[in-house]
TrEMBL record:
SUPFAM superfamilies: Homeodomain-like
UniProt-recorded name of the protein: AraC-like DNA-binding protein
Keyword Transcription regulation among UniProt keywords: yes
Domain of life: Bacteria
Molecular functions (GO terms): DNA-binding transcription factor activity; sequence-specific DNA binding
InterPro entries: Homeodomain-like_sf, HTH_AraC, HTH_AraC-typ_CS, Tscrpt_reg_HTH_AraC_N
Keywords assigned: DNA-binding, Transcription, Transcription regulation
Span list, region Disordered: 273-301
Boundaries of every HTH araC/xylS-type domain copy: 190-288
Coiled-coil annotated residue ranges, if any: none
Segments passing through the bilayer: none
Cross-referenced Pfam families: AraC_N (PF06719), HTH_18 (PF12833)
Length: 301
């Protein structure tokens, strides 16, 4: 079966940093379940070959398991954990970075009648579907190339285009296609997301973000929540807290300074929101992070 071969290839080629010799192709494995972690999702397609994972985006939950794939169309702060993973049967996953320029190129070349009709509304930035046989087959053929490095420069770009085509024309095609459209509502929201991510310490007005996104304030707010499952202020808070967690891993005894560096005026408010987000006060969580760093576990895309 294709999934069996995909598992074997992932087991053989998985590395701690998830990279492969093929640009944009990721592989990963995880042996620990129910260990929550916060990270940025990346703009990626992630196909699970073994195990299962749950992601939380705002108040939405997404679970995907063997034979399913997840699309992340914007780099968003997510919290996740594996629900099925062990040393005897680790979680295994294949990932492909989604490049808007490559998607746009495919959309330009495809005859209009070959693309599904666009649906209404703005799609969520995360979506899960069952993987069709053709998508799993393309992932298998991509990973086979790692054992034939001479073939990578010629064949890897062709298989990438095939995978993107399967996604564009698949169940979550509406989300993927918007990645390649410069004037899509997703692209406009992505512009605001990038601004908040790059300027997370600064306060802002929703009206200014709406103007940046070429939307009215009400349309911007509605579309931002549809894509990210959060308000702009909630999104900024998620970014601040995740950045604080990274800083605390190296500065565990400087909680007040870290809170100020990420934009908090009140250390007590920072501690309350940090504990609500990560389940422990900043100093205690920093100690837990240091312990976990001594025994790192690679993650599935």
């Amino acid at each position: 079966m294709l999934l069996d071969e995909l598992r074997a290839l992932l087991t053989r080629h998985a590395r701690a940093d998830r990279t492969t010799p093929i640009d944009g192709v990721l592989v990963g494995t995880a042996e620990r379940a129910h260990e929550s972690s916060a990270s940025m999702s990346g703009t990626v397609m992630a196909l699970i070959a073994q195990g299962a994972k749950t992601l939380a985006l705002g108040d939405r939950m997404y679970e995907y398991r063997a034979g399913q794939y997840l699309i992340a169309s914007i780099d968003l702060p997510v919290t996740g954990h594996y629900t099925e993973a062990s040393r005897e049967r680790p979680a295994l996953g294949f990932g492909l970075a989604l490049e808007p320029s490559a998607i746009a190129d495919l959309l330009l070349q495809a005859p209009p009648g070959n693309l599904p009709r666009a649906g209404g509304g703005t799609p969520s930035a995360l979506a899960v579907s069952d993987a069709p046989v053709e998508l799993v087959d393309a992932a298998v053929r991509m990973l086979r190339l790692i054992d034939r490095p001479r073939d990578i420069p010629v064949l890897a770009p062709l298989i990438k285009r095939e995978i993107l085509w399967r996604l564009i024309t698949g169940e979550q095609g509406a989300t993927v296609r918007q990645l390649g459209l410069a004037d899509s509502s997703l692209a406009h929201i992505a512009r605001a997301v990038r601004w908040i991510r790059d300027n997370y310490r600064e306060s802002f007005r929703v009206e200014d973000l709406a103007q940046m996104s070429a939307m009215s304030p009400s349309a911007f707010y509605r579309n931002f929540q549809a894509v990210t499952a959060m308000s702009p202020i909630q999104f900024q808070k998620q970014i601040r807290l995740q950045q604080a967690r990274l800083l605390l891993a190296t500065h565990p005894h400087d909680v007040t300074a870290v809170s100020q560096r990420v934009g908090y005026d009140s250390p007590s408010q920072f501690s309350r929101e940090y504990r609500r987000q990560f389940g422990a006060p900043p100093s205690q969580d920093a100690a837990r992070l240091r312990d976990a760093a001594l025994t790192p576990a690679p993650s599935v895309p």
